[in-house]
């Protein structure tokens, strides 16, 4: 059995793979990379009732992997570049060897993965960290569940400037309910709920549009969404709106948040 561990800036994920099959996934939080990696591995061993001796090797990746410079619990431990891990994991989850992958974490990266090459196309600093930071300042909460629950009751017309606010007609392929300017209206009557929804809308519209441009530039209409941000229920709806507008197919695999750890484990399985 091989274990892949993705040590992110906020969350660490571990995946156990045996004979090319995922047998266990776990997610933890900790204050430092070493604690995150060992904690995730220990949790996996306990929950799967696996013996440490059953683990052949551990492959770490992610921002925190730079601080892992020795074996974990005496098990051979190596590293893989995060972009490579995302590419391998994305191809596995999509069952395709030609896919655009948008990995939404604290920030967002966009990758093209083919059987010949994995290429980092770029990305944006807009991501989950943007949602948390803006919500902390604008609506005085930084708990993700609180932000989502508020956003469920939000009204974008209180915050965003829409096409219908500036034109009696549709503009090009944009209908009158499309966003003309994020936060471009910001009425005095806007509530916390409205601002929470507008923050998520801003972030996922940016992610959706850069993903669309990346995919179109590579002649591909399919974009796999991975990372923690793939689980944002409101964000997914916004990406689906972008999908309808631009003819891009966004794919949300069941184990999307573990894609990077999956890729790390499969890189040497």
What does this structure look like?
With about 270 residues, the protein is α/β, with parallel strands linked by helices. Helices cover about 35% and strands about 25% of the residues. It is built from eight helices and twelve strands. Helix 2 crosses helix 8 and helix 3 packs antiparallel against helix 6. The chain is globular and about 70 Å long.
Mean pLDDT: 94
Strand line-up of the largest beta sheet: 3-2-1-4-5
- Output the helix-strand order: EEEHEEHEEEHHEHEHEHEH
**Rg result:** 20 Å
Structural class label: alpha/beta
Number of strands: 12
Biggest sheet, in brief? Answer: 5 strands, mixed
Tally the helices. 8
Unreliable sequence segments: none
Q: Roughly how many Å apart are the termini?
A: 8 Å
* Helical content class: 25-40%
Fraction of residues in β-strands: 15-25%
Shape: globular
The gist of it:
By secondary structure, this protein is α/β, with parallel strands linked by helices. The protein has eight helices and twelve strands. It is globular and about 70 Å long.
List descriptors.
269 residues, alpha/beta, 12 strands, 37% helix, globular
How is the topology of this model organized?
Layout: E1 2-7, E2 12-18, E3 21-28, H1 33-48, E4 57-61, E5 77-79, H2 82-94, E6 98-104, E7 108-114, E8 118-124, H3 128-138, H4 144-151, E9 161-162, H5 163-166, E10 179-181, H6 192-217, E11 222-226, H7 233-246, E12 249-251, H8 259-266
Parallel strand pairs: 1-4, 4-5, 6-11, 11-12
Antiparallel strand pairs: 1-2, 2-3, 6-7, 7-8, 9-10
């Amino acid at each position: 059995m091989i274990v892949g561990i993705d040590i992110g800036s906020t969350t660490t994920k571990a995946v156990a793979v045996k004979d090319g099959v995922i047998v266990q996934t776990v997610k933890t939080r900790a204050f430092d990379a070493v604690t995150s990696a060992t904690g995730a591995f220990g949790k996996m061993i306990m929950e799967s009732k696996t013996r440490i001796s059953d683990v052949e090797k551990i492959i770490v990746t992610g921002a925190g992997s730079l601080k892992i410079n020795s074996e974990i619990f005496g098990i051979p431990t190596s590293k893989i570049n995060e972009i490579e891990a995302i590419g391998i994991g994305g191809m596995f989850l999509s069952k395709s060897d030609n896919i655009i992958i948008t990995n939404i974490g604290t920030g967002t990266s966009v990758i093209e993965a083919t059987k010949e090459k994995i290429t980092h196309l770029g990305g944006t600093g807009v991501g989950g960290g943007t949602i948390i930071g803006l919500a902390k300042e604008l609506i005085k909460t930084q708990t993700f569940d609180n932000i989502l629950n508020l956003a469920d009751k939000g009204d974008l017309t209180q915050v965003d400037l829409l096409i219908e606010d500036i034109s009696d007609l549709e503009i090009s392929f944009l209908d009158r309910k499309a966003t003309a300017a994020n936060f471009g209206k910001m009425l005095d009557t806007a509530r916390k709920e409205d601002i929470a929804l507008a923050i998520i809308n801003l972030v996922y519209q940016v992610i959706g549009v850069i993903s669309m441009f990346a995919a179109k530039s590579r002649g591909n209409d399919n974009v796999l969404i991975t990372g923690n941000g793939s689980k944002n229920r409101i964000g997914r709806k916004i990406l689906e709106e972008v999908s309808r507008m631009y003819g891009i197919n966004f794919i949300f695999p069941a184990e999307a948040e573990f894609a990077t750890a999956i890729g790390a484990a499969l890189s040497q399985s």
